[in-house]
Structures are given as C-alpha cells and as structure tokens.
Amino acid sequence: MNISKLISGIVLAASMASCATTGGPSLEPVEVAFAAPTAAEAKEFATRVDAELKAILTRVSTAEWVKSTYITDDTEQLSAWANEEMMAFLSKAVADSKRFDGVEVDEATGRMLHLLRLTSALPAPSEAAERAELASLAAKLEGMYGKGKWCGADGKAKCRDLGDLSETLAQSRKYEELLDAWMGWHTISREMRPLYEQEVRLANQGAREIGFADLGELWKSGYDMSPADFEAETDRLWQQVKPLYDELHCYVRSQLVKKYGKDRVPARGPIPAHLLGNMWSQDWSNIYPLVEPYKGAASLDVDASLKKQKYDAIRMAKLGESFFTSLGLKPLPETFWQRSMLVQPRDRDVVCHASAWDVTSAGDVRIKMCIRPTEEDLITIHHELGHNYYYQQYDKLPVLFQSGANDGFHEAIGDAIALSITPGYLKQIGLISKVPSDDKGVVNVQMKMALQKIAFLPFGKMIDQWRWDVFSGKTASANYNQAWWELKERYQGVAAPVARSEADFDPGAKYHIPANVPYTRYFLAHILQFQFHKALCDAAGFQGPLHACSVYGSADAGEKLRAMLALGASKPWPDALEAMTGHREMDATPILEYFQPLRTWLAEQNRGQQCGW
Ligand code: X8Z
Ligand code: ZN
Fold first, then answer.
1. Going by fewer Cβ within 10 Å, which terminus of the chain is more open, N or C?
2. Candidate list 376, 384, 533, 547, residue with the active-site label
3. Considering the entire predicted model, what is its pTM?
C-alpha cells in the first residue's frame, strides 16, 4: 500500500500532541521566529515532512501487510501501533504547516502542503489515549470483517466465509438458499456497531481539530473544489446516468418476476437484494443467464473456459500483466511474484478483499487477493494491476504526490484497461470461441457489461451518501440501518429481503465501511474509465463504436496512459484529465455513448412497462 491506499484505508493523521510516540522519527521543533516564514523555509519544511512520512509509511504498510495476510490479535496490535505513530506524526506536521499559511510559495510546495492536510482518511484527536483507541478500533473493525463467517443459525453448520457465501449468491437460483447466504453474511457485522459509532466520534473530533466541520467534509475536500461543489458534481454525474440505470432496473426486474414470481419480486417495487447475484447488489453480472437478451446468440461463458483450461491464480495474474506490457509498460518486478498473496491461505484468517500495494512507496508493488478462476476475478486482477502500474509510474515523486490525480483516477485505470477485454480480445487469447458480430450478439455483450458497470452506479453513490450523513450527524447512530436501507431503495431500487432493525448493522457487511475506505472514488471511476477508454482508443487510432474497441498492443495508447499516470497528484486533477482526454470535466457522455446500442434495445423492451419503484 502506498499513500493513496493509506489515505483511503486505515488511520492516519492528526493530533496536536507532538511527542506521543517513542522511537519513531519526529519532526524537529519548528522555531517560532518573529520574522515571517519564507518561501524557502516552506519548501524545506515540505521536503523534510515528505521524507519522514515516506519512512513512516513503509513501517505502517509493512505492519498492515502482515496483519491483512495473517489476522491475529498480535498483528492487529502491531498495525495499530504503527498507525498511531503515523497519526501522531501527521498531526504535528499539519499543525506545524499552519505557520506557512499565507506565505507565497512555489507551486509544488503549495500543493504538498495542501495535500498534507488531506492525507488522512481517519484523522485522530490530539489526546494520546483517544488516538490509541481510534487506531485500535480501526484495526479491530477490519479484522472483524476479514474473520467473518456464517456457521448456520445454530452455529453447527459448516462455516462459510464471504467467498463461499458469495459463490452461492452468484450461482444459486433457489430463493431460500440465496436468502440464507445473504442473511448469514449480514450477521457478521452486528457486533461492529458500537465500535463503528465510536470510530465516527473520534475521527470527527480529529477532523475538527485540523479545521474541517466533520470527517465527510475532509473526504469531500480532496477534489480541487469546495466540498459543496464536489457534492453537486457527483449529483450532476448521477443525473446524467440515472435514466439508463432506470431502464436496466426495469428490464432486470421484469425477468426476475418471471423467474421468482410476483409474490417474491414486486412488479413495481424495489428488487429484493439477494436476487441480483452479489452480496451487496452492486454487480449483477452473475445473473446474466437470467436476463440474457437473445438466448444462445453469443456464448460469453468465460468462467467455463477458465475452469476448463485450468487457469490458476498465477496464470490469471500473468494474463493481466500481459495486457499492460502489450501497451509498452514494463513487466512487474520479480518481487511482485514473490511477495503477493494471490490465493486464500487455508490455515489462517486473511482480509480477502482485493487490494494493491506499494509497501515502500518505491517499487515494492504487490497485490493481495483470494483469486478464484472466474471472469469477475479476472477483471478484478486488471483493476488491481491498474493500481500497481500507477504506483510504478509515480514512485520517484515526493510521497505526498504519490496518489491518483484524484482517487477516482486510481480506481479507474485498471477498469479502463479491462474495458478492452472485448470479445475480440477474448477470442484472441482463447477464452471464447466465436466473436458475436450481429446485432443480437452485440446486445448480449452489452447486457453483460451493463450488469457490471451500470448496475454499480447508484451503489457507488449511496455508500458515501450514507457516510456523509453519518459524519455530519444528520443520521444519528440510532438510525444507522434505517438510513442505509432508505438510500439503498432510493438510489438502487433494492430492498432488504427480510425486515431489518437497528439490531442489525448492514453497512458493516460491506468491506469499505469497517475498513474506512471512502467510496465515491468508485462512482467517479465508473464514469472516468469510459472517458479514459475513449481517449486511449483515439490514441490507438481505433475507428468504430466505442464498445468494440480494444487497445491491446497499442504503444500509442500506452504512452498516453503512462504520461497521465506519471503526474500522480502533482497537479490538480483537471490538468491530468486534460492531458489524457482533452477535457477538464468529468463527464458521463462516453459511458452513455458506449451503451447506446443496449439503451435503444432496453427502451424497446420496456415499452408499456411501468418502470421505477
Ligand atoms: O474495492 C474494490 C477493489 C479494491 S480498490 C477490489 N472495488 C470496489 C468494491 O469491491 O466494492 C472495485 C469495484 C468497487
Ligand atoms: Zn481499487
């Protein structure tokens, strides 16, 4: 993990307490001079903070890596200690940096000081005991998620972890079996609630101490615009894509009514959350067989080919790497293969949720993932390698610049590359036997993509909608679950399959809540990746509809990508976007262009139907 993971994940930042840690590096006390500080002093300060931060980050990442790949009370404690050190360091650095407020500094220094204040996704209060408590809570919450298992209502059934339960949700078509897997997983988060409540309280306090109204305001400040403007921006993008989501929802619901009956799927209401092939109803591609537009028009069963051809985790990761090298990017370092965790160890608890790391912020890139031979995992591998290739392009920059142009960019890179996994490309690598070429085949392929990309959009939006309200106090802890399901229904048109209460804590059943990873980044990424895809296709000289483009093998596309990645966060994100796409705004036009054939088809299918919920 490098800084861009850390700003999302566990801990970091701030308190005014300057000497709460022992042993670790600490900033020299800054002389409180009578003369106004100079630009040269500011630059020297930023450079020094950056160097010390890099050293601390390596210690934090090393401890976090061990904890995530071997969850025990002890590894949790080690990572909490490392994070405490980081929090103390950052809080002092942020406080000291205030001295340079109003000083005319050079552009790079100004940006480093700006980013320093935003470095933490979980800023700590200044009081040492509270800081330690927050670090401990963060480590525990992620551990509880990683260890989660469902062993049946009486605790006597064979225990199943998230991977097993997700497989049931993906493959079973039996209502009761699906319900059991869904309900089972949602029991693991009940005990998180008091810890989460306390985490929110402490992190809000930390955010206030460094000048933000609450933690949500800090999160929304990372986009080179005001928090209010950013919120309006996400609403604008959502309004651009909502009509297409509504059409997809309408069609999918009609097919689920056919499959499960209108007693179980209300023809005009929200869809029960356990019937969409995914624990959180965020990616519906596993129910493609239930909604396939033209039966048999195109065989897209990549899962079957992966199993038949006995793809293992390494071969899948190598396939991902080969896409990036085809663009002229370097192969992954040997250490990637030695140090990554690619398969789930059977002898211990690990955090299976996929992640990409640069442990030293200097080329020690790895991924941690419990790879299974499925198309979904193949795409996730490309997603993770996108992070790793981003890390590699900017690892010579100051560590404060070692992030995406904004966090949505980081999440969009691997996905943009995976948009080039077209049927043409899959045929080329032998994972399907025939490229569907007629209109029916195209609609089938588009449906499968829409079940991933369009279905995700309202989910990507609602998660932080919930957290922003929790952080601001608009949602009281007594209403956590109710507010969650209100947003699920409003945005996604999805409902809990059984009555929920405040004894449940359903937000905690989604990794990014206990792990404290901001989520709007994925919403943005789902818009941005189509902007990137279009720009890369243009660079590759592709002629034809956007959905048919694969940039595989294009050095020109690779160069365009590399140039943007190399900027890291050194410039405001509109500059990076412009360098790649010629535009300075995030915009949903390319995603709508990509799905135009399906949209026309859906409108036809839904004619006369009452859509909405
Ligand atoms: O968390 C992830 C990645 C790691 S950054 C696997 N994703 C989100 C999720 O799983 O909920 C990728 C898509 C959305
Ligand atoms: Zn990611």
1. C
2. 384
3. 0.95
Instruction: For residue 417, report the distance from its CA to the centre of ligand 2, in Å.
Output: 13
What is the DSSP track for 50-82?
Answer: HHHHHHHHHHHHHHHHHHHTS--HHHHHHHHHH
8 A C-beta contact, residue 531 and residue 409 = no
Element (H, E) at 279: none
Question: Which tokens hold the place of 134?
Answer: 């927050």
Atom of ligand 1 nearest to the CA of 460: 14
Residue 492, classified by CB atoms within 10 Å of its CB into exposed (0-12), middle (13-18) or buried (19+), is buried
CA–CA distance, 337 with 423 (Å, rounded to integer): 28
Q: In whole angstroms, what is the distance from residue 486 CA to residue 462 CA?
A: 10
Choose among 24, 22, 13: nearest CA to 92: 13
195-218 core/surface letters (b: 16 or more CB in 10 A; e: else): bbbebbebbbbbbbbbebebbbbb
Residue whose structure tokens are 């507010």: 483
Pocket of ligand 1 (CB under 6 A): 354-355, 380, 383, 522
Question: Which residue's alpha carbon is nearest to atom 5 within ligand 1?
Answer: 355
pLDDT, averaged per 10 consecutive residues of the chain (613 residues), comes to 43 29 45 78 98 98 98 97 97 96 97 96 96 97 97 95 98 98 98 98 97 98 98 98 98 98 97 98 97 87 95 98 98 98 97 98 98 96 98 98 98 98 96 92 96 99 98 98 98 98 98 98 98 98 97 98 98 97 98 98 97 98
Burial class, 254, CB count within 10 angstroms (exposed 0-12 / middle 13-18 / buried 19+): middle
Spatial distance between the Cα atoms of 137 and 124, rounded to a whole number of angstroms: 12
> What is each CA distance from 55 to 6, 46, 58, 340, 470, in whole angstroms?
14, 15, 5, 21, 34
What span, in angstroms and rounded, lies between the C-alpha atoms of 450 and 285?
8
